[in-house]
Amino acid sequence: MSRRLDLNLWKRYLEAEDLGREAEAEAALVGLFRALPELAPRSGFAARVLVRIAQPTLFSRRPVRWALAAALVAVAVGTALLAPMLPSLARLVGASGLVSALVETTSWLALSFASGASLWNGVESLLGALGRAALLPQMLWFLIIQLAAAALALRGLTRLAFGKRSPHHALPH
Amino acid sequence: MTQSGAARSDEELAVAASRGSEAAFRELVERFERPVYALIVRIVRRGEVAEELAQETFVKAWKALARFDPERKFSSWIFKIAHNAALDALRRRKDEALSLDAPFGDQEAPRELPADPRAEDPLERLTFRDAGRALEEALGGLRVEYREILLLRFAEGLSYEEIAEVTGSPLGTVKVHIFRGRQELARRMRAAGWDPGELRSGRNPGRGPA
Question: Are both B121 and B109 inside the same structural domain?
Fold first, then answer.
């Protein structure tokens, strides 16, 4: 591509712009943009990109996968234990009637699901014992804190694995 | 960017790369590293940041190649990833005001390739360089939306429809931005001394108004 600059191109462009001749102005601009300095990344750019794509992701490391699985289990167990206890929490913090109703409904749904699932029956007695213990306010707060910590750990691991933003954020739809 | 002759098209290379061919992907990177980098650096106005974002663009492209539709142009697809990465960086850093006066930060000026010394005589080279820098400065003063769209249209040769796809803007918005961007560019070039009247009178343009 020739990088010679025809000064007449400037005149044609500016005059076309003045006269509103769009096609002519656009054609002249294509030529003028060839005068822009040609910019390039540092040499070895492609090699650096290939090194980056060859690097293993965080999830390819076994300890990270185990930690993520443990965090997921902790969140699931914490949620299952906490759901039936929510009415106690509502009374404990003096929640309004509306909140109590919502909590009762959530609790009822969770218990219905638990009683309906045959797989759940095997662990129900164990969970019942844990649930009775969790009725204690101190245990309830402990569970809440544990759930929050597990959720934070899960979020942190996800951010570590995918970067600060969603992995597909910058991709075309 | 599509190569003629026996060379494979960008889209064919993308399909091969999506099947795991690093050689095909390397060729794509080599074809697009300059236009992608040039677009990003002219948006974010920082050489080092632009290099990192350009790398990020290709890494994201590699991870997403399985979703690339070979019926679409690879250039539009990669420019869209670059566009998103650059605008995200601008939003994060909120440093667009940097571009208003200085073309690039002194510490992070991008690498500028020299023009072919055999192509022009010294006077032509000087004029060419002055014109290029005046245009660079005028572009740098534009709103980032105008600047990017003008670059995609006139430096990369994308159609209006392709620009709409890259930027995610409606076609009408693209046309309006190109029109307003051109008008603003002409105004800035005139202010820098690139005026038809002054060119006719033999004054040296690009040195700023008298």
Answer: no
Residue A78 domain-assigned (yes or no): yes
A-chain CB neighbours of B196 within 8 Å are 10-11, 14-15
Provide the chain B residues 29-68 that lie in CB contact (below 8 A) with chain A: 29-30, 33-34, 37-38, 41-42, 50-51, 54-60, 62-64, 67
Which range (A139-153, B91-105, B192-206) has the least confidence?
B91-105
Over chain A, what is the mean pLDDT? 75
Quote the minimal CA–CA distance from B54 to chain A in Å: 9
Partner-chain residue, chosen from A36, A41, A168, that has the shortest CB–CB distance to B54 = A41
Rounded to an integer, what distance in angstroms lies between the CA atom of residue B20 and that of residue B62? 9
Most confident of A96-100, A128-132, B84-88: B84-88
If you average pLDDT over residues B150-171, what whole number do you get? 94
**Quick one: B98 and B32 in the same domain?**
yes
CB contact (8 A) between residue B182 and residue A172: no
Which residue from B64, B54, B65 is spatially nearest to B11, judged by alpha carbons?
B65
Residue A8 lies in a domain: no
Look up the domain containing A142 and give its range. Answer: 59-162
Asked if residue B56 has pLDDT above 90, the reply is yes
Residues 6+ apart with CB under 8 A from A169: B84, B88
Overall domain count for chain A: 1
